[in-house]
Amino acid sequence: MLGGIKMDVKIAICDDEPVQAELIKSYILSMDVKLELEFQCIVANSGEELLEKIKDEKIDIFFLDIQMSGINGIETAQKIREDDNEAIIVFMTGYRKYTLEAFELNAFHYLIKPIMPEKFRSLMKRVLRRFHEIKVHRENTKKFILKTQSMIMKIDYNDILYFEKNFRKIKMYTVKGNYDFYGSFKALLTELDQKIFVRCHQGFVVNKNKIISCNNEQILINTNGTRISVSRKYKNNIIRAIESIEC
What is the pLDDT of residue 6? Predict the structure, then answer.
């Protein structure tokens, strides 16, 4: 990542021993700032409390104690998996007898207590690599729904190079071909994920991940070497977009 822009990582920690939960939180927050990540931690001391706290949240990583009164860690993970198959789950316990249940829930790791800081940080680096892989996959598999009078198509975001406004029509340029459809840029920008697409000109919206370089007047687009004009009004949009591209 460039330009000091940090990526949010939402982490939930659940342990019925408050001291242990806060210890894990402190390990996470002490991770190297050079990772350029912004950790947002939710701490709970029971499975019930955790499920209540995250009901309106999209959590990236869970650290779950297994042996808790009420809903234990395995049961809590089962509830999580009902709505989320992607979240990274790490179980924490003093016992090895739950490894089969953890495996069935697609747990990333099974951490045996006591949890030493060096061991935790080593694991956390692996967890964050997996988080990055999931994020990239999620972005690459997003789709744009193209509707015309004669067809409806789903087109991967990763295949789209840019959009060009042409009076009442919009032309979409992709690695597999070009498509025309009726619409406005205002409506288009509302529909697109603006973490991926950015407006660079009154008549152009580009996929930031396809930008090779830019100067004060033009963007060079990946794959086909197309050059697109950059207007003064939208220049800062492009600078921020390039700075946020992960390397």
Answer: 65
